[in-house]
C-alpha cells in the first residue's frame, strides 16, 4: 500500500469512526461526512490521474458536486433544527414527536 493510499484510507476511516462514535452534535456529524467526502474526492481524482482514464476524469467533479449538494442540505437541516428545537444536539431530536 502506497503512502497516498494509506493516508486517504485512514482519513476516510477516521471520518467514519468520528461519525459513528461522536454523535453529540449535528455539526460534528456534518463535518465528519465532509471529511469522508473530501478523502473520497482526492482518492478518486488521484486514481483517475494514475490510470490516465479520460472517460473517468469527470467522476471526481461529479462527486464534488454531490458533496456540495449534501453539504447545503445538511446546513439547511442544521438551521431548521436549531430554529425549531433550540439546539443542534442529536439526543434532543425525537422522530416520534414530529
From TrEMBL:
Question: What does the UniProt keyword field contain?
Answer: Electron transport, Membrane, Mitochondrion, Mitochondrion inner membrane, NAD, Respiratory chain, Translocase, Transmembrane, Transmembrane helix, Transport, Ubiquinone
Reactions listed under catalytic activity: a ubiquinone + NADH + 5 H(+)(in) = a ubiquinol + NAD(+) + 4 H(+)(out)
Q: Where in the cell is it found?
A: Mitochondrion inner membrane; Mitochondrion membrane
Q: Which residues cross the membrane?
A: 6-22, 29-49, 61-82
Q: Name one GO biological process term.
A: ATP synthesis coupled electron transport
- Please name the InterPro entries in this protein's record: NADH_UbQ_OxRdtase_chain4L/K, NUOK/Mnh_C1-like
Highest taxon in the source lineage? Eukaryota
Q: How does it sit in the bilayer? A: Multi-pass membrane protein
Q: What is this protein called?
A: NADH-ubiquinone oxidoreductase chain 4L
Q: Which family does it belong to?
A: Belongs to the complex I subunit 4L family.
- Gene Ontology cellular-component annotations: mitochondrial inner membrane; NADH dehydrogenase complex; respiratory chain complex; transmembrane transporter complex
Q: What does this protein do?
A: Core subunit of the mitochondrial membrane respiratory chain NADH dehydrogenase (Complex I) which catalyzes electron transfer from NADH through the respiratory chain, using ubiquinone as an electron acceptor. Part of the enzyme membrane arm which is embedded in the lipid bilayer and involved in proton translocation.
Per its UniProt entry, what is the enzyme's top EC class, as one word? Answer: translocase
Q: Name one GO molecular function term.
A: oxidoreductase activity, acting on NAD(P)H
What EC number is given for this enzyme? 7.1.1.2
Amino acid at each position: 500500500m502506497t503512502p497516498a493510499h494509506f493516508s486517504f484510507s485512514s482519513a476516510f476511516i477516521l471520518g467514519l469512526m468520528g461519525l459513528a462514535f461522536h454523535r453529540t452534535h449535528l455539526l460534528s456529524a456534518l463535518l465528519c461526512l465532509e471529511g469522508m467526502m473530501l478523502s473520497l474526492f482526492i482518492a478518486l481524482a488521484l486514481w483517475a490521474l494514475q490510470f490516465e482514464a479520460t472517460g473517468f476524469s469527470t467522476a471526481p467533479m461529479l462527486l464534488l458536486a454531490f458533496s456540495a449538494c449534501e453539504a447545503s442540505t445538511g446546513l439547511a437541516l442544521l438551521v431548521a433544527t436549531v430554529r425549531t428545537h433550540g439546539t443542534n444536539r442529536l439526543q434532543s431530536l425525537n422522530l416520534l414527536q414530529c
